Amino acid sequence: MELSEEIAARRAGTGDPEALVGEFRRTAVLVPTVGEDQVMSGVHGGVRWIFAFTDEAALARFALARGEATDRPWDYAAILGARLLDVVVPAQNGPAGVAVNVADEDGSMLFPPAPGIVPEAVAVPGPDDGEDV
User: Fold this and answer.
1) Which of 28, 29, 59, 102 is the most buried (most CB within 10 A)?
2) Helical (H) or strand (E) element with 20
3) Among residues 20, 43, 17, 23, which one has the least CA distance to residue 51?
4) What's phi and psi for 61, nearest 5 deg?
5) Taking Cα atoms as reference points, which of 46, 65, 79, 45 lies closest to residue 108?
6) Is there a contact between 68 and 43 (Cβ–Cβ < 8 Å)?
7) Is the pTM of this model over 0.85?
8) Buried b (16+ CB within 10 A) or exposed e, 30-57
9) What is the pLDDT of residues 64-114, one digit of tens each?
10) What are phi and psi of 6, to 5 degrees?
11) Minimal CA–CA distance to 113: which of 80, 81, 85, 82?
12) d(CA 19, CA 3)
């Protein structure tokens, strides 16, 4: 299944979380860049969310939702999901995750800084991990 299909299945309650993470890791996503070697991100709930998109149309919807001019091109990089989770997320200052297709109400998905998604060294344990958050 493609990443968009895995996201849809998970949002419908029928998808397998491990299959979703696996597909994300194998998929090249589009990540808007700001300046040299910086990915576009936002902070919500104490977590830095790196924006990623499954295709140029999803990236364009995000630009429109932000009120950006549609006649100017956006710089972006195609980055393998595994590289985002294993290299880019740990390079952030503090907890970080990946927000996919955030402008698509029915097609977005978050990959939080949780054990099993990001490297153990940067994962934030949740209440079910035996530690208080």
Assistant:
1) 29
2) helix 17-26
3) 43
4) -65, -35
5) 65
6) no
7) yes
8) bbbeeeeeebbbeeeeebbbbbbbbeee
9) 999 887 778 889 999 999 999 999 999 999 999 999 999 999 999 999 999
10) -65, -40
11) 85
12) 10
Contact 80, 24 (CB under 8 A): no
For residues 60 and 82, what is the distance between their CA atoms, to the nearest angstrom?
23
Beta bridge partners of 121: none
SS3 of residue 44 by DSSP: strand
User: Using an 8 Å Cβ cutoff, are 111 and 100 in contact?
Assistant: yes
Rg of the chain in Å (alpha carbons): 15
AA identity, residue 115: P
| Amino acid in position 66 | R
Report how far residue 39's alpha carbon sits from residue 33's, in angstroms, rounded to the nearest whole number. Answer: 4
Which tokens in the block code for residue 37?
């070697």
Distance of CA 115 to the CA centre of its chain: 15
Residue 98: which H helix or E strand, with range? Answer: strand 96-100
Residues 6+ apart with CB under 8 A from 8: 15, 107
Tokens of 99: 């927000």
